[in-house]
């Protein structure tokens, strides 16, 4: 049943993207995006309905009116306080100027005493103290302080000339402010300066509003700069990560080509070293084997080959004899061994006979 008024409010704002834009515009301080409103349509409707009852800052309209009234009252009290405070400061400045110039004028002395007495009376006033039972300073009361006021005649004379002197002092301050605010007017006539003073307040208000506007713009630019800096840093981190991945892929791809080139280089270097070794070996052979040594080695080789052939023939004949002996069996093997033993004994006896002294004499 309650959906009817809500739907009326929503339809009055708009539909779709238009509704989203109006909701976002109605709550500029709320960090909500169109994607959030699209994903949460009920929340979007709630904000659309709520925008009919609150201002962009989030205050309800009755509360905003009360706040405006309170601010107006506060501004009024502030203006009243600033008025009194500026007058008090102006009087103090006049007294300070009088003390610096060392002028013994009854007017300034009377005004100084009146200000001191008024300040002391305000300090001793029990109505301004938070604790009513608090003892007074040095046991004094306001009536005792009022007795220190200058004579009534001097006070009346001071009051009579106070406005004129205060006006001179304030005008002097305004002229100094005008000279600071617009130095080009310092050399102008008194009439032009007075005319310019009448517009000084409006110009100061314009300058103040401009300064506040620039301050707000600076604050917004600072926030925007921070957001852009964060966005820039995040994008920079993504770029660095992408660059690192590209470097890694490129390095892995190049590493294969580099390894192949290194392998080809080492293979070529090994071939060069082998060729150099062969060249050194050939050089050593050329230095070692001259023409004469080669012919001598060739003759030696021929003799050794002929001797080898003779040995092979003899070996062949011996193998034939051994084959014929194998046919005779094991009995002949025993006789052959006995023959070999007797042959060895005969050789030993012959060697002994040849080695004996009698044989040498013969």
What report would you give on this structure?
Among the domains are: 3-58, no CATH class; 155-198; 291-349. The model is unreliable at 1-14 (pLDDT under 50). The chain is mainly α and 362 residues long. Helix 1 crosses helix 4 (41-50). The protein starts with a helix and ends with a helix. It is built from 13 helices and no strands. It holds the Pfam family HAUS4. One of its GO terms (molecular function) is microtubule minus-end binding. One of its GO terms (biological process) is centrosome cycle.
Task: State mean pLDDT (0 to 100 scale).
Answer: 78
- Give the ordered list of helices and strands: HHHHHHHHHHHHH
The fraction of residues in strands falls at under 5%
Q: What is the straight-line distance between the termini?
A: 163 Å
Count of DSSP strands: 0
Ranges where pLDDT stays below 50 over 5 or more residues in a row are 1-14
Short description:
InterPro entries: HAUS4, HAUS4_met. 83% of the residues lie in helices and 0% in strands.
């Amino acid at each position: 049943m309650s959906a009817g008024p809500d739907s009326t409010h929503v339809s009055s704002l708009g539909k779709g993207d238009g509704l989203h834009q109006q909701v976002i515009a109605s709550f500029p301080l709320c960090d909500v995006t169109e994607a959030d409103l699209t994903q949460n349509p009920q929340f979007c409707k709630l904000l659309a309905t709520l925008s009919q009852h609150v201002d962009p800052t989030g205050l309800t309209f009755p509360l905003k009116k009360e706040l405006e009234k309170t601010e107006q009252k506060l501004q009024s009290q502030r203006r009243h306080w600033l008025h009194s405070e500026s007058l008090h400061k102006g009087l103090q400045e006049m007294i300070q100027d009088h003390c610096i110039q060392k002028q013994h004028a009854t007017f300034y002395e009377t005004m100084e005493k009146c200000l001191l007495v008024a300040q002391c009376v305000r300090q001793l006033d029990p109505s301004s103290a938070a604790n009513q039972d608090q003892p007074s300073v040095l046991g004094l009361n306001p009536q005792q302080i009022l007795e220190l006021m200058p004579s009534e005649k001097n006070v009346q004379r001071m009051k009579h000339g106070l406005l004129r002197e205060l006006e001179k002092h304030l005008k002097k301050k305004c002229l100094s402010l005008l000279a600071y605010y617009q130095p080009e007017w310092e050399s102008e006539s008194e009439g032009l300066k007075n005319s310019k003073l009448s517009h000084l307040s409006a110009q100061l208000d314009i300058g103040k509003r401009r300064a506040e506007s620039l301050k707000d713009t600076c604050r917004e630019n600072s926030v925007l700069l921070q957001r852009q800096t964060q966005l820039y840093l995040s994008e920079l981190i993504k770029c660095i990560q992408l660059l690192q991945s590209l470097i890694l892929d490129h390095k892995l791809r190049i590493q294969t080509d580099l390894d192949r080139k290194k392998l080809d280089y080492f293979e070529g270097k090994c071939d060069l070293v082998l060729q150099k070794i062969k060249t050194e070996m050939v050089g050593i052979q050329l230095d070692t084997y001259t023409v004469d040594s080669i012919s001598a080695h060739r003759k030696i080789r021929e003799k050794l080959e002929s001797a080898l052939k003779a040995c092979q023939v003899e070996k062949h004949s011996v193998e034939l004899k051994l084959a014929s002996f194998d046919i005779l069996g094991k009995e002949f093997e025993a006789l052959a061994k006995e023959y070999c033993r007797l042959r060895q004994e005969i050789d030993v006896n012959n060697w002994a006979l040849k080695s004996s002294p009698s044989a040498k004499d013969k």
